[in-house]
Amino acid sequence: MPRPKGSAELIAARRHQALRLLDEGFSFNEVGRMLGAAASSVMRWRDTAEGGGEEALKVRFPPRPPTLTDRQGRTLVKLLLKGAMANGFSTELWTARRVGTLIQQHCRVQFHRSHVARLLHELGFSCQKPERRALECDERKIEEWKRTRWPQVKKRCAVGCHIVFADESGFMMIPSVRCTWAPVGQTPIVRHYYRRDRISAIAGCRRAPSASSWDSTFGGIRSISLGRKSMTSSGI
Q1: Which of 11, 28, 101, 145 could form a Cys-Cys staple with 39, CB 3.0–4.6 A?
Q2: What confidence tens digit (pLDDT) does each residue in 87-144 have?
Q3: Cα–Cα distance for residue pair 78/140, rounded to 1 Å
Q4: In Å, what is the CA distance from 12 to each residue of 4, 19, 110, 176?
């Protein structure tokens, strides 16, 4: 039976009341029913009082976990924004365990993983799925293109030209594997054909000279590869 909510004085008074009821001749079960406690708890209180006196019945709550100062919190945010690899980890993935290690290294404070998660929420962080970004991507050149070339492209639309962005993507036909429930020690098996079948698709969006927004103008399957056979379909 869980300890009732209340101050330390209130809980200690409940224990002293149990001892008085025992002195009046009530049994452990009777005292437990009257106070809403287990008979084993009443017996433990009696044994504690006999071994250490009434002083031993005082309630001692565990100390509050250590916290970070405002300065330590600001330091932690700066370290997190630098990235996990800049702090000596093998990938850019921040986990509660890694952040806990970082706090212990720089702040000399040790936290449980669950407390680290609460601390991160307080600092304005949340658990998110990262956005993929190609290593070949040059952000400086992209910004330069948007600043210099893109205004010139939009001007062409004013003289009757269509602006089209197209891209191609490939899809493997092997099914993806997700988590599922299974008996402990028995790994589930997904049976499927293990051919390297592939679908290549192409799609694009267009802005006509008279349009005020973008629309999808074409899309379709470019090619299908099934084993040694290959088929091509325009669909555009």
Answers
A1: 28
A2: 998 888 888 899 999 999 998 888 888 889 899 889 888 888 777 777 788 889 999 9
A3: 24
A4: 11, 11, 32, 59
Q: Are 73 and 120 in contact (CB under 8 A)?
A: no
Beta bridge partners of 207: 163
**Does residue 148 contact residue 198 with C-beta atoms inside 8 Å?**
no
The model carries a pTM of: 0.45
What is the C-alpha separation between 185 and 177, in angstroms, rounded? Answer: 18
**Which H helix or E strand runs over 229?**
strand 229-232
d(CA 225, CA 236): 19
- Rounded Cα distance between 182 and 46, Å, is 48
